[in-house]
Each structure stands twice: as C-alpha cells, then as structure tokens.
C-alpha cells in the first residue's frame, strides 16, 4: 500500500502561504539553521562559492587542499596558514546584515525556539540575539586554549597574536603546546551543547534554513530532524541538502537579504525590520 503522504500543512508551497501560517500564529517555535551565506553581504566571504568563497582564495597559503587550513591534524603540524588567515576572520570589524536583524526580530516576537549557526563571526549576537538562543555549532573565537593541555589562553594575548599573525603557544612552559581558538576544526568534536539541543528541530513548528551549502555533517542533518508535517523554508542562492523534497518545503532561491525582506513584507514586519537593522 502506498504510504499516505502526510497532510499538507501549507495549502501551497509559497512564501505567501508561509506568511499566512506565521500570521495565523501557527509558528510559535521556529528553529533556524544558518551558514556563511548570511554574512557575505557583511563583507565576510563564505567558504564554497566558486569565485568569492574562501576555499577558492587560499592559493597563497600553499595548502595540500583548501579545508586543510581548518584541519586539526594539519594545524598541529603547520599552524602558520591558519594564523595567516585568522586576522581576516576575527570578529569585530563587521556589521550584522538585515538577515541577522531578522533573527533578532523573530526573538523579539517570541517565535525563536533556537538558532543553530555554523558561523564564527558572532554577528547573530551583535544583532541582538541572546546567547541562550544561539548554538554556535562550529564554536567561535570567544575562547582559546592549548591543544595539548587544554589550559585557557588570555583573550588579549590571542588578539595580539592574531593582529601580528604570530603563532601563540601555551603559557605553561613545561607544556609549550599550540594555542587554538575555540572554533571547531575538521577532525574535532562539535560542542556538547549541539548534541544536547539537536532534538529541538523535532519540536519546531517551522524550520528556516539560510545561507548554507548543507555540506558539513552533523550540522547538515539538522533540517531532516524536523517532523514531516513541519514546514521548512530555504532562503539560499541554490537548492541544498534535502530541501524541497517534502510537501511543505518552501524554496526561496535568492540572496538571503532580499529573501528575508520578502518574508518580512509578507508578514507585515518589513518596516519594523528595517528600523531594527538601521539601529544595528
Ligand atoms: N544569499 C544567499 N545564499 C548565499 C549568499 C547570499 N548572499 N552567499 C552565499 N550563499 C550560499 C552559497 O550559495 C552556499 O550555498 O550560501 C551557501 C554557503 O555555503 P558554504 O560556503 O559551504 O558555507 P557553510 O555552509 O556555512 O559551510 C559550512 O564548512 O568549512 C566549513 O566549518 C566551515 O561552518 C563552515 C562549514
């Protein structure tokens, strides 16, 4: 017997139908999953876009392959390439985008259950989203420590090292291990809070995926953890992951900032959103 498709939650898979679903108050627990694509308009390159992505612009670092710059085993042998790049990635120089402000607006309206981000630029926090609403799945530059003895390393000294592009070493001279920021390298475990919260997509009544290629697991499997009848919205330049494969998936295949403006307008929130962003 053919498995019966779950009843459609949205009458049609359009932004307008999704906006009605939100305005009818049927989206009270929204989970959002974001990647580097929401920060490109802030001036931070993403990783995999053909010309502009970070991985297409690392030739000067003589890496065996682009992702090596974030590989823990490569880093332990050759920390220089990462520290040559870290200065460009270090938070503090960039302004949040209107997409970041939209995340804050969802929180202000009491609709944001949890934001899972892969980004290390801290722009979600700078846009106003409270820390307890954010899961920084790939860590952040907020902390740093020794890769050998795990002893924490002072923030000021790390800032200095990054500014001057020199490689910081553990302050415990008996250890003298390499110091690394708390961003998750390939080959490292994601933070415990990712696994403690990855049951939340199954509790959500709306899932929004923005600015990610959904190429890196386990983060990339989050959208699939939503219930079948939970509408899922993708705002992204290109179709990614299994998005579009479910009856209530809505695809907005365009720039995040313009997709977010369209959704806000359909919800009657555009003025509020623009005003919020103008103060960021
Ligand atoms: N608007 C909409 N989509 C965009 C925009 C934009 N302005 N800019 C880029 N994109 C899309 C790209 O088309 C791509 O699908 O966002 C996605 C970015 O994908 P990646 O560059 O792979 O970035 P991300 O998904 O965050 O990478 C995941 O890979 O290297 C690791 O740890 C790193 O967290 C990172 C992870």
From TrEMBL:
Annotated Zn(2+) binding sites: 146, 149, 170, 175
Gene Ontology molecular-function annotations: histone deacetylase activity, NAD-dependent; NAD+ binding; zinc ion binding
GO cellular component, as recorded: nucleus
Enzyme Commission number(s): 2.3.1.286
Coiled-coil boundaries: none
UniProt keyword annotations, A-Z: Metal-binding, NAD, Transferase, Zinc
Domain Deacetylase sirtuin-type: 8-270
Cofactor(s) needed: Zn(2+)
Reactions that this protein is recorded to catalyse: N(6)-acetyl-L-lysyl-[protein] + NAD(+) + H2O = 2''-O-acetyl-ADP-D-ribose + nicotinamide + L-lysyl-[protein]
Cofactor stoichiometry and binding remark: Binds 1 zinc ion per subunit.
Enzyme class: transferase
Protein name: NAD-dependent protein deacetylase
Full-sequence portion shown in this chain: 9 to 288 of 384
Family: Belongs to the sirtuin family. Class I subfamily.
Active-site residues, record numbering mapped to chain: 138 (proton acceptor)
List of residues binding NAD(+): 36-40, 46-48, 118-121, 212-213, 236-238, 256
